[in-house]
């Protein structure tokens, strides 16, 4: 039985083995999600990587466009 912190580190290392780049260093994070069964109290905890990227573009006459990307 491993702790949540150990599970988080294992999941992040597995993700990092497949996706090693400067972009991962700058724009990726890890989300913890948990679900608990109301009947038996069993709790499932998962860790998923996510990408967040915001791009600001100045367009004609200084109109600024915002692009948000979540994955």
Describe this structure in words.
By secondary structure, the protein is α+β, with helices and mostly antiparallel strands. Helix content is 30%, strand content 48%. The protein is built from two helices and three strands; from the N terminus they run ααβββ.
Cross-sheet strand order for the largest sheet: 1-2-3
Which residues sit in consecutive blocks of at least 5 with pLDDT less than 50? none
In total, the number of strands is 3
Shape: elongated
How many helices does DSSP assign? 2
The secondary structure category is alpha+beta
| N to C succession of SSEs | HHEEE
Largest sheet: 3 strands, antiparallel
Helical amount among residues, as a percent range? 25-40%
Strand content: over 45%
* Measured distance between first and last alpha carbons: 30 Å
Average residue-wise pLDDT: 85
Q: What is the radius of gyration computed over CA atoms, rounded to a whole number of angstroms?
A: 18 Å
Question: What topology emerges from the helices and strands here?
Answer:
Elements: H1 4-18, H2 22-27, E1 28-36, E2 43-59, E3 63-70
Summarize the model shown.
By secondary structure, the chain is an alpha+beta fold.
Task: Kindly list the characteristics that best describe this protein.
single chain; 71 residues; alpha+beta; 3-stranded antiparallel beta sheet; 2 helices; 3 strands; 30% helix
């Amino acid at each position: 039985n491993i702790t949540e912190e150990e599970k988080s580190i294992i999941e992040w290392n597995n993700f990092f083995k497949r996706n090693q780049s400067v972009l991962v260093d700058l724009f990726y994070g890890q989300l913890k999600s948990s679900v608990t069964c109301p009947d038996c109290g069993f709790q499932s905890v998962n860790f998923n990587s996510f990408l967040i990227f915001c791009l600001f573009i100045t367009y004609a006459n200084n109109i600024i466009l915002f692009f948000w990307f979540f994955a």
